[in-house]
């Protein structure tokens, strides 16, 4: 009779130790991820993609406000793509290189102050060198992302002859791209996705509306264009 009873201290369900260790390992790895380190390339990539979409679409809409020819709009967008990608790459390279110089100088100052604990200091220095910003990586990411973003309004309008349809298709394609880029930036950085996407989308709409409106105003003022 007693042998058929389950002991109070005997567990009813046994969880494999291997599964517990694996789950614990995954939780530790998830906690140890420093998402701020991604900002070196993520910031450049997201900024480049957003600028590529917004600036190229704004240029095309601004020119389209006074020149409805599709060839003029496409050439304007292509010129904006090339100029913007080069500008973003150079600007990001210079900016990140300045940041690199500052951080390296700070590391050298801290190294001079170290007298004791040499081995520990060397390990810390190796870790700091790995986390230093990379100007070439940031410039390449920025230029590539800008080009990808700029291709959205170009491809959306390349084969549409009707002017009004062309504008609305471009606005729709650009809006979708801005939402996606905003969501990706938030997802990689573990930030609120809805807020990020909404902020990027509204900013893009404002840029396009202001450019279109001001160019239309100047075009209708009687200036020779």
TrEMBL record:
Keywords: Ion transport, Iron, Iron transport, Membrane, Transmembrane, Transmembrane helix, Transport, Vacuole. The keyword Transport applies. GO terms for cellular component: vacuolar membrane. It comes from the Eukaryota. GO terms for molecular function: iron ion sequestering activity; iron ion transmembrane transporter activity; manganese ion transmembrane transporter activity. Residues 113-134 are annotated as: Disordered. GO terms for biological process: intracellular manganese ion homeostasis. It is found in: Vacuole membrane. Vacuolar Fe(2+) uptake transporter. This is Vacuolar iron transporter. The lineage of its organism: Eukaryota, Viridiplantae, Streptophyta, Embryophyta, Tracheophyta.
């Amino acid at each position: 009779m007693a042998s058929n009873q389950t002991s109070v201290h005997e567990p009813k369900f046994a969880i494999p130790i291997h599964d517990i260790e694996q789950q614990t390992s995954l939780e530790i790895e998830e906690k140890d991820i420093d998402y701020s380190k991604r900002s070196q390339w993520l910031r450049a990539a997201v900024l480049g993609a957003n600028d590529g979409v917004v600036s190229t679409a704004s240029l095309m809409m601004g020119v389209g406000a006074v020149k409805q020819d599709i060839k003029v709009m496409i050439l304007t967008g292509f010129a904006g793509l090339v100029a913007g990608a080069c500008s973003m790459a150079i600007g990001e390279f210079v900016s990140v290189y300045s940041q690199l110089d500052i951080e390296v100088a700070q590391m050298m100052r801290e190294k001079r102050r170290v007298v004791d604990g040499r081995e520990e200091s060397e390990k810390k220095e190796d870790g700091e060198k790995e986390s230093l910003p990379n100007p070439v990586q940031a410039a390449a990411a920025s230029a590539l992302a800008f080009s990808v973003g700029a291709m959205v309004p170009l491809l959306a309008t390349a084969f549409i002859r009707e002017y009004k349809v062309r504008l609305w298709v471009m606005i729709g394609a650009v809006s979708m791209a801005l939402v996606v880029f905003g969501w990706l930036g938030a997802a990689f950085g573990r930030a609120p996705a809805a807020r990020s996407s909404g902020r990027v989308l509204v900013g893009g709409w404002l840029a396009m509306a202001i450019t279109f409106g001001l160019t239309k105003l100047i075009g209708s003022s009687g200036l020779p264009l």
